[in-house]
């Protein structure tokens, strides 16, 4: 058995009792070219999040409702790289910044972003969304205009619905022109909660 095959076998059989050896395994996996995507889970006020990052930056944040972890990891493996490994230490900064955000101590993220899961138009829409000030909202039409497609509010809505990095790329700050919250990938309750956090409120009443 080669060193590479041995390492692959070790990584497949890591269990709770072996957590102390994970840093060494992670380093060995990276050296052997087995680690393209590091991931971890984070408990938050809006539920459990799965964070994933490549060497280029944060590539995925997913809400984990029920038994969704495997499905999210399979999607990341199919769309980014099959070399995915739990490596929480590689996500220390995203975890810290998200904790600060949920605690009301951070109003802007300073994280490197890996944009590969977004189309060119999707990226423009999400960059426009990221420019919406903390605690403020904009409309789908306004975001579409900033993204260079004044008549593309529906397409902008679709791009926001496919946002692979919710919270960090704050699609929750986009509402309908009439003032109603509109949809959200994580559910309207989460959207309301995120807006409430940014407005310093325990709860935000539905509009």
Folded structure, characterized:
The chain has 207 residues and is an alpha/beta fold. It folds into 2 domains: 35-102, 2-Layer Sandwich (Double Stranded RNA Binding Domain); 120-198, Arc Repressor Mutant, subunit A (Orthogonal Bundle), CATH 1.10.10. Helix content is 39%, strand content 14%. The chain contains 8 helices and 6 strands; from the N terminus they run H-H-E-E-E-H-E-H-H-E-H-H-E-H. It has helices at 3-12, 22-31, 69-79, 92-102, 120-130, 140-146, 153-161, 188-198; strands spanning 37-44, 47-54, 57-63, 84-86, 138-139, 174-175. A 4-stranded mixed β-sheet has the order 3-2-1-4, sandwiched between helices. Helix 6 (140-146) crosses helix 7. It is globular. The N and C termini lie far apart (62 Å).
């Amino acid at each position: 058995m080669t060193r590479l095959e041995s390492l692959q076998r070790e990584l497949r059989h890591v269990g709770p009792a072996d957590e102390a050896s994970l840093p060494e395994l992670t380093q060995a996996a990276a050296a052997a070219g087995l680690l393209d995507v590091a991931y971890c889970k984070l408990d938050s006020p809006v539920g459990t999040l799965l964070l994933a990052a490549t060497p280029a930056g944060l590539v995925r944040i997913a809400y984990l409702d029920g038994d969704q972890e495997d499905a999210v990891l399979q999607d990341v493996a199919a769309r980014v790289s099959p070399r995915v490994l739990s490596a929480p230490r590689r996500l220390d900064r995203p975890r810290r910044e998200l904790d600060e955000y949920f605690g009301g101590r951070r109003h802007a993220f300073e994280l490197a972003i890996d944009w590969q899961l977004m189309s060119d138009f999707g990226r423009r829409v999400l960059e426009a969304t990221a420019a919406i000030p903390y605690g403020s909202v904009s409309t789908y039409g306004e975001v579409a205009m900033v993204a260079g497609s004044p008549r593309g509010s529906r397409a902008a809505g679709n791009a926001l619905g496919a946002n692979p990095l919710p919270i960090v790329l704050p699609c929750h700050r986009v509402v309908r022109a009439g003032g109603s919250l509109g949809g959200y990938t994580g559910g309207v309750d989460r959207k309301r909660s995120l807006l409430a956090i940014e407005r310093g409120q325990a709860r935000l009443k539905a509009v």
